[in-house]
Design brief:
Keywords: Signal. By secondary structure, the chain is mainly α. It has seven helices and no strands. 69% of the residues lie in helices and 0% in strands. The longest helix has 36 residues.
Amino acid sequence: MKKIEKILAVIGVAAALGAGVLGTHAVFAADDPSTSSNGVSELVRAIATKFNLDASAVQAVFDEQRETRYTQMEMRGEKRFQSKLFQAVTDGILTQDQADLVNAKHVEMKEFRMSLQGKTPEEIRIALKEQKEALDAWVKENNIPKSFVFFGRGSMMMGRGHGAKMMSGTGSAFHAEMMPAMEM
């Protein structure tokens, strides 16, 4: 029984440490030779081998931890975004109507981001270019400061962290090619 508790403790620590590594670098998994075709990383395989565990069970722990972390990051980001909107209205930078428009556009951009999943880098590039043009027109039409809708990492358009992961999972080639084009 003690052995199982030690193994679970090691897996928990490794999952906590590895979730950050795997979550941060999941974008590059398609190009990473240390990841096998079934998605089990070398770290997962090493832990499974060392403690005589099923690699898919260890991978499940890593995946669960990564999802939990991602959800927490998204919630914190949403809270910061809403706080920024509230403060902008309080400070007179935005009217409440403008804040409502920004909030609605924020939801629309999340849906747009999700619609990019599974698309090729070229399809994503075209969609992003079209969306950026539409967003620029929307900003001017509604007199919204660009700081509330800028294009790039950490923005309403792209989300937080590695936006490429959320969009296609096609790996570092996508990230290297597309991220500069998406920055303003």
